[in-house]
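stage 2 :: seqdesign
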């Protein structure tokens, strides 16, 4: 689908990647419904996008926003109703929370939050919007996951579990809906320079030599995925190669992560 034909509901719109995705889509002609938990941030973001693209900030048919905590069933149901009334034909799951550190130290409440936000919320919102999307001539659901949805990395066991799950959801649902107008896609960025990373993650990435992409690169990749209608896209080299090797023979790569294990320190 061309961006100019897209009416995109974007969760996590005010985050680092979410803002970059919103900017890229808006400048390419897409209509946007920004979704997040802060009305002040969403309103400011909508005004900024309208000014940057020369559109009327009062025109909610082009740039709208909706306050919703996607982990809450009532808020999610209300969002689905508003998105359908707004005539969305693209749903982008961008909301997510991080978790890093030795798995033995990970708080169980944080694990539940990861599952609820990174995996269950996209599944529930997709299900709620699916009847509307199936009535469209063409519709797309894009799950913004991570390269860690293909490569399990020391220090990210719980986070990877949710992203592996999200990728599996996207893959299975894509095949299930192959004879419908709805295409399901998965985008796997590598580490990105946003507030998502705390000081411990930054130190770990530096010690292990990991590359950090600017959020704009993810925005570009999502636009390319949307318009190409490919099933999956991974951002960055060598990660884009590693995910394929890992899928073929993942135990071959186990030795490549010695440096990561050595630099994984208990949280104190």
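stage 2 :: out
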């Amino acid at each position: 689908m061309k961006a100019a034909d897209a009416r995109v509901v974007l969760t996590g719109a005010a985050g680092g990647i979410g803002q970059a995705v919103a900017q890229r889509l808006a400048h390419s002609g897409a209509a946007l419904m920004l979704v997040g938990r802060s009305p002040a941030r969403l309103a400011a973001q909508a005004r900024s996008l309208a000014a940057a693209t020369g559109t009327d900030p009062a025109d909610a048919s082009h740039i709208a926003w909706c306050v919703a905590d996607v982990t809450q069933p009532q808020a999610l149901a209300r969002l689905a109703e508003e998105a359908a009334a707004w005539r969305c034909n693209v749903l982008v799951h961008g909301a997510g929370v991080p978790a890093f550190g030795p798995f033995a130290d990970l708080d169980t409440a944080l694990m539940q939050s990861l599952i609820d936000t990174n995996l269950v919320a996209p599944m529930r919102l997709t299900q709620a919007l699916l009847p509307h999307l199936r009535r469209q001539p063409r519709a797309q659901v894009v799950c913004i996951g991570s390269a860690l949805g293909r490569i399990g990395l020391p220090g990210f066991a719980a986070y990877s579990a949710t992203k592996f799950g999200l990728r599996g959801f996207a893959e299975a649902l894509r095949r299930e809906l192959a004879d419908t107008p709805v295409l399901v896609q998965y985008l796997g960025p590598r580490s990105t320079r946003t507030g998502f990373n705390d000081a411990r993650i930054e130190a770990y990435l530096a010690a292990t030599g990991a590359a950090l992409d600017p959020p704009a690169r993810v925005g570009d990749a999502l636009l390319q995925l949307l318009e190409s209608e490919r099933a999956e896209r991974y951002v960055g080299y060598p990660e884009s190669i590693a995910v394929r090797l890992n899928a073929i023979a993942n135990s071959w790569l186990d030795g490549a992560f010695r440096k990561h294990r050595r630099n994984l320190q208990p949280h104190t």
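stage 3 :: structure notes
- The CA atoms of residues 58 and 193 lie 32 Å apart.
- The beta strands are 7-11, 31-36, 63-67, 90-93, 139-144, 182-188, 232-234.
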